[in-house]
Amino acid sequence: MGWKMTTGKFCGGRSCGSRLSGLASAVVVLATLGAAVSGALAEEAKPNAKPADAKAAEAKQPEGNPWVVNCASGGSGTDLECQASQNLTESKTGQRVLTLTVRRQADNGSLAMLLALPHGLFLPAGASYQIDAGNKAAVAIQTSDQNGAYAAIPLTPELLTGLKSGTMLNIGMESVTRKPVTIPVSLKGFTAAVDKLQATK
What is the tens place of the pLDDT at every residue in 41-88? Predict the structure, then answer.
C-alpha cells in the first residue's frame, strides 16, 4: 500500500555548530509556518486519530505532479509569498497523513522544508529523512498541536541539490508503540516547483 495526494542531523560535511545554526533559523520557519499549516489542517483533524503506522498502511502514492506551488500577497502588498507543498492523505478517509512545505525563511531568505507529521508518534524519537538509498539524517520534532507534530529542515545547497536529483524522499518516524514508520514522498516535479519558488520575488 502507498500514498495519495490531494492538491491543495546530519553533520555530514558540515560542522555541528553550522547545523545548530541552521536549526535555529528553522525555528523561525516553524513560528511563521506552523500556525498557518495548523489552521489549514484543522478541518482535517479528527478525534481518536489512528497511530501513524495504521495511517501509513491505508494510503497510496500520488499520481501526476505531486508538488504544488501557491502564492499570496506579502505583508508589503507588493511582494508575493510563495510555497511549494505536497500533501499525502489516507486513501479511504481522505485524512491527512503528511504535508511537506518548502518556502523562504523570513529572516534570511533561505529555503526550509516544514514537515507536518501525523498523530500517534513517539515524539522524543524525532524524525528522519533520506533521499533514495542515501544517508539517513535526523531531525528533531520541535512542536505539536491537535493536528499533528512539526519539524523543520533547513535546505542547504547540498541538500537542495540532492533533492533535485533524487526520485524519492523517505520520511521516517516512530509510532507511539515504538514501531518504525517510513513514508515515501515522491520528488517528481520538485525541481520545477522549487525553481518557480526561487524565481518569484
Answer: 443 434 345 555 555 545 555 567 899 999 987 666 667 789 999 999
Buried b (16+ CB within 10 A) or exposed e, 167-176: eebbbbbbbe
List all residues 6 or more positions away from 47 whose beta carbon is below 8 Å from its beta carbon: none
- What are 193's three cell numbers? 516547483
Q: For residue 28, with 0-12 CB atoms within 10 Å meaning exposed, 13-18 middle and 19 or more buried, which class applies?
A: middle
For residue 63, the SS3 value is: coil
Interval 4-51: pLDDT, tens: 444 333 333 434 444 434 444 444 445 444 444 444 444 343 434 555
Task: State the virtual CA torsion across 149, 154, 160, 166 in degrees, nearest 10.
Answer: -30
**Nearby residues of 173 by Cβ (< 8 Å), 6 or more positions away:** 52, 117, 121, 122, 125, 126, 127, 128, 180, 181, 183
Q: What average pLDDT does this structure show over 84-94?
A: 89
From CA 201, how far away is CA 197, in angstroms rounded?
A: 9
